[in-house]
């Protein structure tokens, strides 16, 4: 019997209404009454918003949640989507395996209801969604269908709403009753190999799930073999209903090595200091390999102290090939393979070790931002375990890995002797922008912010590395087209690049290409600094890339715009002659020159005079009077180690501090948003971040760590201790930016400030002038690769429906972190 017939049978609807088929029905609420529920009844709606790689999204459903006007949908309800098109909610049901496949789930929403007879904590295991609102609170999704996401959530007594924003075209959601309050979960581990003969401590990254409605604190974790002692480590706090990948050390010297190859059991234990018995235990397995075999290494990242991994294949040692200095080939995986899968294509290579970084995640890794940093950190860690010539390091990749080779070749050019991108793509696809002539100041600033992610202008930085650019296979699509565009760009300036197009995509052809790549690598060694006479350095953001060889751009005149400095050194005349564009300060390293001598410097046609070579660097600044030398930039000014941009807060082991001094709604939002950001960091970057309440935060401790505050000056008690001198003050009802007020309870403001008493640390803020403004920040896409954020963005909840038109202010603080002079533009003219 169908649902309409059931409703008629029990007298809920009339026969006339039943026959008219005009009844509007809610989704069937499924009851969680046992230990497990696979959700099968949904309402779905196609994409309602405008998303993409821009700082502000348009989404009328999120707008309704932020404003408190959200109501559960019924079949047939319509939503006015972005662009003015009316979209309709329709019913949908999952198949026998629990998967719901529907065309609406590529960017659209799926809604479900679950009822319980009592409040309880359950585990949500879902896949295929970007995120989910659980009774209005944001929780992270699993957009790449990895099956690794597990979340403790609260089901309140009665009806519960689950609103999934979907990404993959299909969705599966399951609720499970947890068997323990706290437990290790093995589905997403970061584990090393046990390498024969090595005894140094290793790091394990293992998920720890906290099903309690209070923070998990004062815990220690151990890892040990069946026989042997264990190392004890403090476990950082996990927020209420939180999941965190914790770092646990292991001492491999405490067990007897078995016969290779082998699987070795390792026992993990979590102990709370106030309890005698372990709170959680589990046993995992590590693979043991020979020292010359492919192996997985782990290390603690400087970004957040999380455990990250890379794979490496040591160079072949027993060979008749004439000896060459051992080099390191770094290979970047594409979007659909892991580093280990890449290395499996190679056998041991004479004089070349091969390293495959993970990029922090296989899925969603574009080798931009944090995944690019991971490649450099992996290379630094490998240098501690393998001997290789730092001037013989080469970088390659295919597809997305090819894009990464160009990105890292452009942003860290001093690390590579040669680059070998294959089937590389160049830029992200971007939405059409407003014609320049018709742009408002806000639109012009947003266009400038978005353009700062372009890669093509930065290719100039690769001039000192040889490049083997290849397009392989009969491809009429994007990669082949981008390869030709890249070749055309390189031909304008690059002195040493080769472009090859291959139509044969057979295994034999690919094997031949690999052999040619290895020969290409062996033939190239990076020049010594003293051998480089001409340097051309280009950057949009000195905080991301600032240095090529001995030349560094320290500051810009117009932040976020393209800056360039080209300097030639004439050793006979001891003369540096340079031209600059949009450069406010630069430095020239002279450690390679003979000490106790002098050099002349001319910039932009201005003779600056003679400068003494003291073995360090020469610094020059530009102001209204022209160029002049400077002893050192004051640490309070912007410079590469702390240049700003909102995303820069996710470095220096950030601490997320949520406010507890607001209303119940505001406090609940601050906890939920900080936890959501930590979860998103885990899913997207395999990272691990501290989430603490303002009452537990000590601002005098660890002054060089970055801080993110959630709330405002009225709701977060850490605010006055960190931001008392900030020109941006957010309180309930208003935002004041350098004495200019914006009034309303629906304003959202994100910004960064320098942390006092530190020359490197940043304080970031996610704030609102009321609960509506706070909720408007829930899904700001600052974790999405290719999205750039300025120092400050002020908008209202109306921007979720009105788009750019309701961004109130955006831009950059001045070089002294001031509003005036600075580059912040406003929607409205000041009165």
Automatic annotation (TrEMBL):
It comes from the Bacteria. InterPro entries: AB_hydrolase_fold, Plant_Biomass_Hydrol_Est. GO terms for molecular function: hydrolase activity. It comes from Bythopirellula polymerisocia. Keywords: Hydrolase, Signal. The keyword Hydrolase applies. This is Peptidase S9 prolyl oligopeptidase catalytic domain-containing protein. Gene3D superfamilies: alpha/beta hydrolase. SUPFAM superfamilies: alpha/beta-Hydrolases (SSF53474). The lineage of its organism: Bacteria, Pseudomonadati, Planctomycetota, Planctomycetia, Pirellulales.
């Amino acid at each position: 019997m169908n649902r309409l017939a059931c409703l008629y049978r029990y007298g809920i609807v009339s026969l006339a209404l039943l026959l008219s088929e005009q009844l509007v029905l809610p989704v069937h609420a499924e009851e969680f009454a046992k230990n497990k529920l696979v959700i099968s009844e949904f309402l779905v709606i196609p994409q309602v918003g405008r998303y993409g790689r821009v700082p502000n999204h348009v989404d009328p459903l999120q707008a309704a949640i932020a404003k408190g006007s959200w109501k559960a949908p019924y079949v047939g309800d319509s939503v006015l989507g972005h662009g003015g098109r009316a979209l309709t909610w329709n019913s949908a049901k999952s198949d026998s395996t629990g998967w719901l496949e529907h065309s609406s789930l590529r960017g659209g929403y799926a809604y479900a209801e679950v009822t319980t007879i009592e409040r309880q904590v359950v585990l949500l295991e879902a896949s295929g969604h970007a995120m989910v609102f659980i009774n209005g609170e944001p929780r992270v999704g699993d957009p790449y269908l990895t099956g690794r996401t597990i979340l403790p959530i609260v089901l309140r007594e009665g009806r519960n709403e689950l609103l999934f924003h979907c990404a993959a075209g299909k969705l599966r959601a399951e609720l499970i009753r947890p068997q323990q309050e706290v437990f290790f979960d093995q589905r997403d581990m970061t584990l090393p190999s046990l390498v024969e003969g090595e005894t140094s401590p290793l790091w394990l990254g293992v998920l720890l799930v906290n099903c309690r409605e209070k923070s998990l604190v004062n815990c220690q974790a151990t890892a040990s073999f069946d026989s042997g002692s264990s190392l004890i480590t403090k476990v950082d706090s996990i927020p209420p209903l939180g999941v965190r990948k914790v770092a646990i050390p292991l001492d491999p010297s405490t067990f007897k090595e078995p016969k290779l190859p082998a699987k070795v059991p390792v026992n993990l234990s979590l102990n709370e200091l106030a309890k005698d018995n372990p709170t959680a235990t589990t046993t995992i397995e590590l693979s043991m390999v020979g020292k010359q075999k492919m192996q997985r290494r782990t290390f603690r990242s400087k970004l957040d102290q999380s455990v990250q991994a890379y794979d490496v294949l040591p160079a072949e040692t027993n060979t008749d090939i004439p000896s060459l200095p051992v080099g390191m080939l770094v290979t970047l995986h594409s979007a659909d393979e892991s580093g280990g899968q890449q290395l499996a294509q190679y056998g041991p290579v004479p004089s070349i070790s091969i390293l495959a970084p993970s990029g922090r995640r296989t899925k969603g890794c574009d080798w931009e931002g944090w995944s690019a940093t991971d490649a450099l950190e992996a290379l630094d860690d490998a240098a501690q375990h393998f001997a290789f010539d730092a001037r013989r390091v080469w970088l390659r990749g295919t597809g997305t890995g090819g894009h990464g080779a160009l990105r890292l070749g452009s942003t860290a050019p001093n690390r590579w002797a040669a680059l070998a991108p294959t089937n590389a793509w160049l830029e992200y696809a971007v939405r059409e922008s407003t014609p320049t002539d018709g742009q408002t100041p806000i639109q012009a600033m947003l266009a400038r912010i978005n353009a700062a992610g372009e890669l093509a202008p930065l290719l100039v930085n690769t001039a000192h590395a040889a490049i083997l650019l290849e397009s392989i296979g009969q491809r009429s699509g994007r990669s082949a087209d981008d390869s030709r565009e890249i070749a055309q760009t390189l031909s304008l300036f690059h002195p040493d690049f080769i472009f090859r197009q291959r139509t044969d995509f057979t295994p034999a052809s690919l094997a031949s290409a690999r052999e040619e790549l290895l020969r290409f690598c062996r033939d190239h060694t990076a020049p010594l600094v003293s051998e480089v006479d001409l340097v051309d350095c280009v950057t949009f953001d000195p905080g991301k890339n600032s240095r090529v060889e001995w030349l560094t751009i320290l500051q810009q005149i117009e932040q976020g715009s393209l800056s360039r400095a080209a300097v030639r050194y004439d050793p006979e005349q001891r003369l540096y002659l340079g031209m600059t564009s949009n450069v406010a300060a630069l430095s020239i390293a002279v450690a390679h020159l003979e000490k106790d001598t002098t050099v002349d410097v001319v910039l932009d046609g201005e003779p600056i005079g003679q400068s003494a070579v003291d073995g360090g660097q020469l610094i020059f600044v530009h102001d209204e009077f022209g160029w002049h030398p400077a002893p050192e930039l004051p640490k309070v000014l912007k410079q590469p180690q702390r240049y700003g941009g909102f995303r820069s807060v996710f470095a220096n082991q950030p601490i997320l501090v949520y406010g507890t001094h607001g209303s119940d709604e505001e406090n609940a939002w601050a906890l939920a948003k900080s936890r959501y950001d930590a979860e998103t960091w885990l899913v997207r970057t395999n990272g691990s971040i501290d989430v603490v309440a303002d009452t537990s935060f000590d601002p005098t401790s660890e002054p060089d760590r970055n801080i993110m505050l959630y709330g405002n000056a009225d709701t977060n008690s850490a605010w006055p201790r960190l931001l008392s001198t900030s020109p941006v003050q957010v309180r309930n009802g208003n935002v004041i930016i350098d004495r200019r007020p914006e009034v309303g309870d629906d304003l959202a403001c994100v910004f960064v400030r320098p942390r006092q008493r530190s020359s490197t640390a940043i304080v970031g803020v996610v704030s609102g002038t009321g609960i509506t403004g706070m909720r408007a920040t829930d899904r700001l896409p600052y974790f999405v690769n290719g999205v750039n954020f300025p120092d400050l963005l002020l908008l209202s909840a109306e921007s979720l429906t009105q788009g750019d038109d309701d961004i109130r202010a955006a831009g950059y603080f001045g070089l002294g972190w001031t509003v005036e002079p600075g580059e912040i533009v406003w929607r409205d003219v000041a009165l």
